[in-house]
Amino acid sequence: MTEWCENRLEITGKSVCIDVAQDWISGVNTPHYRHAVQQSIRMFLAGTAGILKPVKTLSYPPYPFLIPKGLGAANAQNNAFEQWLSLLQNDAVIDIEAVRLIERLYQQTGLNGVKWENIPEVSRQIIGPILTRQYADWFGVLTLIDSIDAGACWEKLSVMPERSQPCDMIQIMPTRLASELNGDGNLLKGIESLSSLNARVFDIAWPSGHGLKWERGDIGYIEVLFDSPWTPPCANVIAQVSAVFDCEVKHSYCEPINEIQGFDCYAYGKHVTSGNLLTENVDSINQIEGDLVTNGFPINVSGKPPLVNQASSATA
Length: 316
Hints:
By secondary structure, this protein is of the alpha+beta class. Helix content is 36%, strand content 19%.
């Protein structure tokens, strides 16, 4: 059973910076890294099915079936696949540069215009079981099913999401290509699972804001409430939030079952101070921007209106 940790971010900065932060908080930004992941899944499937082949002898030990026997013709499509394969071999960080490169390589492969019905039957027989195996990881479905519509899944991979998750932390600290393809089903031998990567980088398995609410107090201030599974996001990601949005961030958190609580303050990428939120230490808590502790979690009593805006999760 998931124990949810309550988090509060109090973000202060120039109004233009808070405007940009608000877009990230509410999930209206385009998740370009998700586009790169979906494009990479298509290139991965095309490689396993022999639709694309490298033009020189290569291997990929985590999944040898990615490179069937035989070399491909030295054309633009196979050259692009070979370059993408190099990114996968290096477990590339999907930063802005990698997103642009993967987009260019994907377009060069011509896969964007390939419909399921135009894929040879022998190739579809290879792609279908992989889609079934990775369905939960690649399409964000929590329940396992025995059969899927492989054609619909192939087409869905070409539909790029326009909105991100609220407080999508992967937009702050990028993910890695091989782990994204691997998911949590051990598809790629010896490659870190996605949950393990997220826990290592963010301290949480699902790096976004769950049950998120926010309120813009004034032009230079925004307050955010969200839940995270078991623990709060790590210090590095909150520090990076303050750097990316050129602002000051106070992060308060409380998970009462396991007695995890405290607050940390950051300014422009640097840690400023930390403390606890224990009820027996109310005097020191009251010195921190008029906070009180109610049911183990700090409630702001500075006269700002209650949080009323809610961001619903976007489909990844």
